[in-house]
Amino acid sequence: MKKNRNFIVVVVLLAIIAVVLLLTNSRTTFKRSLSDFAVDDTSTVTKIFMSDKNNNNLLLTRVDAGKWLVNNKYPGSKANISLLMETMLRLQVKATVPKAATENVIRDLATISVKVEIYQWKYRIDIFDWIHLFPHEALSKVYFVGGPIQSNMGSYMIMEHSSEPYVVFLPGLRGFVTPIYSPIEKYWRDYSIFRKALPQIASVRLEFPADPGNSFEVRNNQNRDVSLISLQDNQQVPVFDTLKVMNFLTSFRNINFEALLNDMDPHRKDSILATAPYCIISLTDTAHVTQSIKAFRKGAAPGEVDDFGKPAPYDLDRLYTLVNNGQDFTLAQYFAFDKILRPKMFFLPQLETKKK
User: Which of 160, 210, 278, 330 has its CA 20 to 30 A from that of 151?
Assistant: First the structure.
Protein backbone atom coordinates (compact mmCIF):
# COMPACT_ATOMS: atom_id res chain seq x y z
CA MET A 1 0.00 0.00 0.00
CA LYS A 2 2.84 2.33 0.92
CA LYS A 3 4.58 1.62 -2.41
CA ASN A 4 1.42 2.53 -4.33
CA ARG A 5 1.09 5.77 -2.38
CA ASN A 6 4.70 6.72 -3.10
CA PHE A 7 4.19 6.00 -6.79
CA ILE A 8 1.11 8.22 -6.92
CA VAL A 9 2.98 11.04 -5.16
CA VAL A 10 5.83 10.81 -7.70
CA VAL A 11 3.42 10.89 -10.65
CA VAL A 12 1.59 13.93 -9.22
CA LEU A 13 4.86 15.80 -8.67
CA LEU A 14 6.01 15.03 -12.19
CA ALA A 15 2.70 16.20 -13.59
CA ILE A 16 2.99 19.49 -11.64
CA ILE A 17 6.52 20.03 -12.99
CA ALA A 18 5.30 19.38 -16.51
CA VAL A 19 2.48 21.91 -16.18
CA VAL A 20 4.84 24.55 -14.79
CA LEU A 21 7.28 24.02 -17.65
CA LEU A 22 4.49 24.28 -20.21
CA LEU A 23 3.18 27.51 -18.70
CA THR A 24 6.57 29.19 -18.39
CA ASN A 25 7.63 28.26 -21.91
CA SER A 26 4.34 28.72 -23.73
CA ARG A 27 5.09 32.14 -25.18
CA THR A 28 8.60 31.38 -26.42
CA THR A 29 7.52 27.96 -27.67
CA PHE A 30 4.66 29.45 -29.68
CA LYS A 31 6.94 32.03 -31.28
CA ARG A 32 9.58 29.42 -32.08
CA SER A 33 6.98 27.06 -33.55
CA LEU A 34 6.17 29.59 -36.27
CA SER A 35 9.59 28.95 -37.81
CA ASP A 36 10.27 25.44 -36.52
CA PHE A 37 9.91 23.54 -39.79
CA ALA A 38 12.50 20.86 -39.04
CA VAL A 39 11.65 17.52 -37.43
CA ASP A 40 14.08 16.80 -34.61
CA ASP A 41 13.71 13.01 -34.79
CA THR A 42 12.58 11.53 -38.11
CA SER A 43 12.60 8.00 -36.67
CA THR A 44 9.37 8.90 -34.87
CA VAL A 45 7.60 10.01 -38.07
CA THR A 46 4.69 7.68 -38.85
CA LYS A 47 2.90 9.40 -41.73
CA ILE A 48 3.39 12.29 -44.14
CA PHE A 49 0.51 13.74 -46.10
CA MET A 50 1.06 16.20 -48.97
CA SER A 51 -1.42 17.90 -51.26
CA ASP A 52 -1.37 20.70 -53.79
CA LYS A 53 -3.89 22.99 -55.48
CA ASN A 54 -4.21 20.61 -58.46
CA ASN A 55 -5.88 17.91 -56.34
CA ASN A 56 -2.75 15.78 -56.14
CA ASN A 57 -2.69 13.95 -52.82
CA LEU A 58 0.04 11.78 -51.38
CA LEU A 59 0.13 9.72 -48.20
CA LEU A 60 3.39 8.11 -47.09
CA THR A 61 2.92 5.61 -44.28
CA ARG A 62 5.69 3.88 -42.35
CA VAL A 63 4.93 0.17 -42.09
CA ASP A 64 8.27 -1.00 -40.75
CA ALA A 65 11.82 0.19 -40.20
CA GLY A 66 12.91 1.58 -43.56
CA LYS A 67 9.70 0.46 -45.32
CA TRP A 68 6.94 2.80 -46.44
CA LEU A 69 3.70 2.54 -48.36
CA VAL A 70 2.59 5.08 -50.97
CA ASN A 71 -1.14 5.86 -50.74
CA ASN A 72 -1.61 2.54 -48.94
CA LYS A 73 -1.04 0.72 -52.24
CA TYR A 74 2.59 0.65 -53.39
CA PRO A 75 5.98 0.12 -51.76
CA GLY A 76 7.82 3.41 -51.39
CA SER A 77 11.14 4.38 -52.94
CA LYS A 78 13.78 4.01 -50.25
CA ALA A 79 16.06 6.62 -51.85
CA ASN A 80 13.39 9.30 -52.32
CA ILE A 81 11.88 8.85 -48.88
CA SER A 82 15.34 8.91 -47.28
CA LEU A 83 15.97 12.22 -49.04
CA LEU A 84 12.70 13.59 -47.70
CA MET A 85 13.56 12.45 -44.17
CA GLU A 86 17.00 14.06 -44.37
CA THR A 87 15.45 17.27 -45.68
CA MET A 88 12.88 17.44 -42.89
CA LEU A 89 15.60 16.79 -40.33
CA ARG A 90 18.06 19.44 -41.55
CA LEU A 91 15.78 22.27 -42.71
CA GLN A 92 16.90 25.68 -41.51
CA VAL A 93 15.44 29.16 -41.71
CA LYS A 94 17.64 31.48 -43.73
CA ALA A 95 15.70 34.70 -43.23
CA THR A 96 12.35 36.25 -42.54
CA VAL A 97 10.47 37.69 -45.49
CA PRO A 98 10.74 41.51 -45.63
CA LYS A 99 7.51 43.19 -44.58
CA ALA A 100 7.19 44.88 -47.96
CA ALA A 101 7.09 41.48 -49.67
CA THR A 102 5.09 39.55 -47.08
CA GLU A 103 1.68 40.18 -48.62
CA ASN A 104 2.75 39.01 -52.08
CA VAL A 105 4.51 35.92 -50.69
CA ILE A 106 1.46 34.93 -48.63
CA ARG A 107 -0.75 35.40 -51.69
CA ASP A 108 1.53 33.13 -53.73
CA LEU A 109 1.62 30.52 -50.98
CA ALA A 110 -2.17 30.52 -50.90
CA THR A 111 -2.41 29.75 -54.60
CA ILE A 112 0.72 27.74 -55.45
CA SER A 113 2.04 25.63 -52.60
CA VAL A 114 2.13 22.13 -51.18
CA LYS A 115 0.50 21.50 -47.84
CA VAL A 116 2.55 19.17 -45.65
CA GLU A 117 1.20 17.32 -42.61
CA ILE A 118 3.67 15.37 -40.47
CA TYR A 119 2.53 12.76 -37.94
CA GLN A 120 4.80 11.42 -35.22
CA TRP A 121 4.79 9.24 -32.17
CA LYS A 122 4.42 11.59 -29.23
CA TYR A 123 4.11 11.19 -25.46
CA ARG A 124 1.34 12.77 -23.49
CA ILE A 125 3.86 13.20 -20.68
CA ASP A 126 7.43 13.97 -21.72
CA ILE A 127 9.55 15.40 -18.91
CA PHE A 128 13.08 16.59 -19.65
CA ASP A 129 13.16 14.11 -22.55
CA TRP A 130 13.75 11.51 -19.84
CA ILE A 131 10.39 10.29 -18.65
CA HIS A 132 8.03 9.25 -21.47
CA LEU A 133 4.48 8.19 -20.70
CA PHE A 134 1.39 7.43 -22.81
CA PRO A 135 2.67 7.22 -26.41
CA HIS A 136 0.28 8.05 -29.24
CA GLU A 137 0.31 9.16 -32.88
CA ALA A 138 -0.19 12.89 -33.23
CA LEU A 139 -0.17 15.56 -35.92
CA SER A 140 3.04 17.41 -35.08
CA LYS A 141 3.53 19.92 -37.90
CA VAL A 142 1.49 21.47 -40.69
CA TYR A 143 3.15 23.88 -43.09
CA PHE A 144 3.01 25.06 -46.68
CA VAL A 145 5.95 24.83 -49.09
CA GLY A 146 6.02 27.47 -51.79
CA GLY A 147 8.24 28.27 -54.72
CA PRO A 148 11.88 29.34 -54.76
CA ILE A 149 13.22 32.77 -53.92
CA GLN A 150 14.71 34.83 -56.74
CA SER A 151 18.23 33.40 -56.29
CA ASN A 152 16.90 29.82 -56.24
CA MET A 153 18.82 29.26 -53.01
CA GLY A 154 15.82 28.83 -50.74
CA SER A 155 12.08 28.21 -50.66
CA TYR A 156 9.23 30.15 -49.13
CA MET A 157 7.44 28.34 -46.29
CA ILE A 158 4.77 29.22 -43.79
CA MET A 159 3.21 27.41 -40.85
CA GLU A 160 -0.52 26.77 -40.85
CA HIS A 161 -2.48 29.60 -39.15
CA SER A 162 0.59 31.84 -39.29
CA SER A 163 1.01 35.20 -41.03
CA GLU A 164 4.82 35.07 -41.03
CA PRO A 165 6.43 33.39 -44.07
CA TYR A 166 10.10 32.45 -44.02
CA VAL A 167 12.88 31.63 -46.46
CA VAL A 168 13.95 28.06 -45.69
CA PHE A 169 16.94 26.17 -47.08
CA LEU A 170 18.84 22.91 -46.73
CA PRO A 171 22.51 23.37 -45.74
CA GLY A 172 24.79 21.92 -48.40
CA LEU A 173 22.15 22.02 -51.13
CA ARG A 174 22.82 24.46 -53.94
CA GLY A 175 19.22 25.01 -54.83
CA PHE A 176 15.79 24.96 -53.25
CA VAL A 177 13.81 22.22 -51.53
CA THR A 178 10.45 22.77 -53.25
CA PRO A 179 10.78 19.78 -55.66
CA ILE A 180 11.46 17.42 -52.75
CA TYR A 181 7.93 18.08 -51.46
CA SER A 182 6.06 16.64 -54.42
CA PRO A 183 2.55 15.18 -53.94
CA ILE A 184 2.76 13.27 -57.25
CA GLU A 185 2.33 9.56 -56.50
CA LYS A 186 4.62 8.13 -59.17
CA TYR A 187 7.69 9.96 -57.85
CA TRP A 188 7.50 8.10 -54.53
CA ARG A 189 6.91 4.56 -55.72
CA ASP A 190 9.52 1.84 -55.61
CA TYR A 191 10.48 1.14 -59.24
CA SER A 192 11.56 -2.45 -58.67
CA ILE A 193 10.11 -5.22 -60.86
CA PHE A 194 11.93 -8.26 -59.54
CA ARG A 195 13.64 -8.35 -56.17
CA LYS A 196 14.25 -12.00 -55.42
CA ALA A 197 17.42 -13.61 -54.12
CA LEU A 198 18.45 -17.02 -55.44
CA PRO A 199 17.12 -19.02 -52.43
CA GLN A 200 13.69 -17.38 -52.94
CA ILE A 201 13.35 -18.48 -56.58
CA ALA A 202 11.65 -21.75 -57.52
CA SER A 203 11.63 -21.23 -61.29
CA VAL A 204 11.95 -18.64 -64.05
CA ARG A 205 10.22 -18.99 -67.41
CA LEU A 206 11.09 -16.99 -70.54
CA GLU A 207 8.84 -17.13 -73.59
CA PHE A 208 9.87 -15.55 -76.89
CA PRO A 209 6.69 -15.58 -79.06
CA ALA A 210 8.65 -14.84 -82.24
CA ASP A 211 11.37 -17.39 -81.41
CA PRO A 212 9.82 -20.37 -79.58
CA GLY A 213 12.98 -22.42 -80.07
CA ASN A 214 14.75 -20.16 -77.61
CA SER A 215 11.98 -20.23 -75.00
CA PHE A 216 12.94 -22.02 -71.78
CA GLU A 217 12.36 -22.53 -68.10
CA VAL A 218 14.96 -22.73 -65.37
CA ARG A 219 14.07 -24.70 -62.26
CA ASN A 220 15.98 -24.03 -59.09
CA ASN A 221 16.24 -27.30 -57.22
CA GLN A 222 18.23 -25.62 -54.44
CA ASN A 223 21.72 -26.60 -53.28
CA ARG A 224 23.09 -25.11 -56.51
CA ASP A 225 21.24 -27.76 -58.55
CA VAL A 226 19.34 -26.30 -61.52
CA SER A 227 17.49 -27.68 -64.52
CA LEU A 228 17.03 -26.13 -67.96
CA ILE A 229 13.81 -27.06 -69.77
CA SER A 230 13.17 -26.31 -73.46
CA LEU A 231 9.60 -25.05 -73.80
CA GLN A 232 9.37 -25.99 -77.47
CA ASP A 233 9.34 -29.71 -76.68
CA ASN A 234 9.07 -29.56 -72.87
CA GLN A 235 12.28 -31.61 -72.60
CA GLN A 236 15.14 -31.14 -70.20
CA VAL A 237 18.32 -29.88 -71.82
CA PRO A 238 21.00 -32.49 -71.00
CA VAL A 239 24.07 -30.26 -71.26
CA PHE A 240 24.23 -26.56 -70.46
CA ASP A 241 26.47 -24.01 -68.77
CA THR A 242 25.49 -24.22 -65.10
CA LEU A 243 27.46 -21.11 -64.15
CA LYS A 244 25.61 -19.01 -66.73
CA VAL A 245 22.27 -20.29 -65.47
CA MET A 246 23.22 -19.49 -61.86
CA ASN A 247 24.29 -15.97 -62.87
CA PHE A 248 20.98 -15.61 -64.70
CA LEU A 249 19.00 -16.52 -61.58
CA THR A 250 20.99 -14.22 -59.31
CA SER A 251 20.27 -11.32 -61.68
CA PHE A 252 16.68 -11.18 -60.43
CA ARG A 253 17.85 -9.73 -57.13
CA ASN A 254 17.38 -6.14 -58.32
CA ILE A 255 15.60 -5.43 -61.62
CA ASN A 256 13.99 -1.99 -61.91
CA PHE A 257 12.10 0.01 -64.50
CA GLU A 258 13.10 3.55 -65.38
CA ALA A 259 9.80 5.42 -65.57
CA LEU A 260 6.07 4.96 -65.20
CA LEU A 261 4.13 5.56 -68.42
CA ASN A 262 0.58 5.05 -67.15
CA ASP A 263 -0.30 8.57 -68.29
CA MET A 264 0.79 7.92 -71.90
CA ASP A 265 -1.81 8.70 -74.56
CA PRO A 266 -4.29 5.76 -74.29
CA HIS A 267 -4.42 5.17 -78.05
CA ARG A 268 -0.67 4.98 -78.32
CA LYS A 269 -0.40 2.67 -75.32
CA ASP A 270 -3.17 0.38 -76.59
CA SER A 271 -1.43 0.20 -79.96
CA ILE A 272 1.79 -0.99 -78.30
CA LEU A 273 0.02 -3.52 -76.09
CA ALA A 274 -1.87 -4.91 -79.10
CA THR A 275 1.40 -6.12 -80.64
CA ALA A 276 2.97 -9.46 -79.76
CA PRO A 277 5.35 -9.07 -76.80
CA TYR A 278 9.04 -9.54 -77.42
CA CYS A 279 9.30 -11.63 -74.27
CA ILE A 280 7.18 -12.85 -71.36
CA ILE A 281 9.04 -13.42 -68.09
CA SER A 282 7.43 -15.38 -65.26
CA LEU A 283 9.15 -15.87 -61.91
CA THR A 284 7.69 -18.26 -59.34
CA ASP A 285 9.04 -17.99 -55.83
CA THR A 286 9.33 -20.67 -53.17
CA ALA A 287 5.96 -19.57 -51.74
CA HIS A 288 4.41 -20.60 -55.10
CA VAL A 289 3.59 -16.99 -56.05
CA THR A 290 4.14 -16.24 -59.74
CA GLN A 291 5.02 -12.78 -61.00
CA SER A 292 4.79 -12.22 -64.77
CA ILE A 293 5.75 -9.29 -66.95
CA LYS A 294 5.62 -8.60 -70.66
CA ALA A 295 8.36 -6.79 -72.57
CA PHE A 296 7.69 -4.93 -75.83
CA ARG A 297 10.14 -3.51 -78.33
CA LYS A 298 10.19 0.28 -78.55
CA GLY A 299 10.38 1.89 -81.98
CA ALA A 300 13.73 3.36 -82.95
CA ALA A 301 14.17 7.10 -83.06
CA PRO A 302 14.46 8.66 -86.55
CA GLY A 303 18.02 8.24 -87.80
CA GLU A 304 19.05 5.76 -85.09
CA VAL A 305 21.57 3.19 -86.34
CA ASP A 306 23.02 -0.02 -84.94
CA ASP A 307 26.68 -0.87 -84.32
CA PHE A 308 27.14 -1.59 -88.03
CA GLY A 309 25.75 1.74 -89.19
CA LYS A 310 22.49 0.23 -90.43
CA PRO A 311 19.05 1.61 -89.49
CA ALA A 312 18.16 0.27 -86.05
CA PRO A 313 15.16 -2.11 -86.10
CA TYR A 314 14.08 -0.83 -82.68
CA ASP A 315 15.25 1.40 -79.83
CA LEU A 316 18.59 -0.06 -78.76
CA ASP A 317 18.55 1.50 -75.29
CA ARG A 318 15.01 1.12 -73.98
CA LEU A 319 11.96 -1.11 -74.12
CA TYR A 320 8.42 -1.06 -72.76
CA THR A 321 7.32 -3.36 -69.94
CA LEU A 322 3.90 -4.26 -68.56
CA VAL A 323 4.34 -5.06 -64.87
CA ASN A 324 2.49 -5.49 -61.56
CA ASN A 325 -0.17 -7.82 -62.95
CA GLY A 326 -0.72 -5.55 -65.93
CA GLN A 327 -1.44 -2.49 -63.82
CA ASP A 328 1.63 -0.48 -64.75
CA PHE A 329 3.04 0.36 -68.17
CA THR A 330 6.68 1.31 -67.82
CA LEU A 331 9.88 2.21 -69.63
CA ALA A 332 12.96 0.10 -68.89
CA GLN A 333 16.58 0.07 -69.99
CA TYR A 334 18.31 -2.81 -71.75
CA PHE A 335 21.25 -1.99 -69.48
CA ALA A 336 19.18 -3.40 -66.60
CA PHE A 337 17.25 -6.03 -68.56
CA ASP A 338 19.84 -7.62 -70.83
CA LYS A 339 21.06 -9.93 -68.07
CA ILE A 340 17.63 -11.52 -67.75
CA LEU A 341 16.64 -11.44 -71.46
CA ARG A 342 18.79 -14.44 -72.34
CA PRO A 343 17.67 -16.89 -75.07
CA LYS A 344 18.03 -20.62 -74.48
CA MET A 345 21.05 -20.82 -76.81
CA PHE A 346 22.96 -18.49 -74.46
CA PHE A 347 23.24 -21.33 -71.95
CA LEU A 348 24.26 -24.03 -74.40
CA PRO A 349 27.88 -25.13 -74.96
CA GLN A 350 29.59 -23.32 -77.82
CA LEU A 351 29.80 -26.44 -79.95
CA GLU A 352 26.07 -27.10 -79.70
CA THR A 353 25.33 -23.41 -80.26
CA LYS A 354 27.28 -23.49 -83.53
CA LYS A 355 25.32 -26.52 -84.68
CA LYS A 356 22.11 -24.64 -84.08
Answer: 160
